[in-house]
Amino acid sequence: QVQLVESGGGLVQAGESLRLSCTASGFTFSTYAMAWYRRAPGKERELVASISKGGNAYYPDSVRGRASIARDNVKNTLTLQMNSLKPEDTAVYSCATAGCSGDVCPNYWGQGTQVTVSS
Predict the structure, then answer these.
(1) Arithmetic mean of pLDDT, 89-110
(2) pLDDT by residue (tens digit) across 25-75?
(3) DSSP assignment of the chain, as one string?
(4) What is the DSSP string of 51-74?
(5) Among 10, 54, 56, 115, whose CB has the most other CB atoms within 10 angstroms?
């Protein structure tokens, strides 16, 4: 059974930091790129960060310089360090597979963890 379980969300004040974790099971974690997404109330889901199988990271402008994604292919974990948090970072953060391994392109998602940033 495929599972992606996020943890680490919570309520923080603007300027503080959070570290989110995602534990994967039921599939070969190391063979897929992974990503963090977020969805704020009333807004479209947006990419927060992605990381290739080999560890190359990508960040959109909205979080570049404040976010750091990492993966541990032994522990099957994905992490997202978010610094200098802003109220506009408030959203449900989810981890997901990204891309394909050969012809297999799964679309696995976790349930998400709430991050709330107060001003």
Answers:
(1) 92
(2) 999 999 999 999 999 999 999 999 999 999 999 999 999 999 999 999 999
(3) --EEEEE--EEEETT--EEEEEEEESS-GGGSEEEEEEE-TTS--EEEEEE-TT--EE--TTTTTTEEEEEETTTTEEEEEE-S--GGG-EEEEEEEES-BTTB----B---EEEEEE-
(4) E-TT--EE--TTTTTTEEEEEETT
(5) 115
pLDDT of 3: 96
CB 45 within 8 A of CB 57: no
Non-local (6+) Cβ contacts of 93 within 8 A are 6, 9, 20, 36, 37, 38, 48, 80, 112, 113, 114, 115
Nearest to 85 by CA among 30, 9, 25, 2: 9
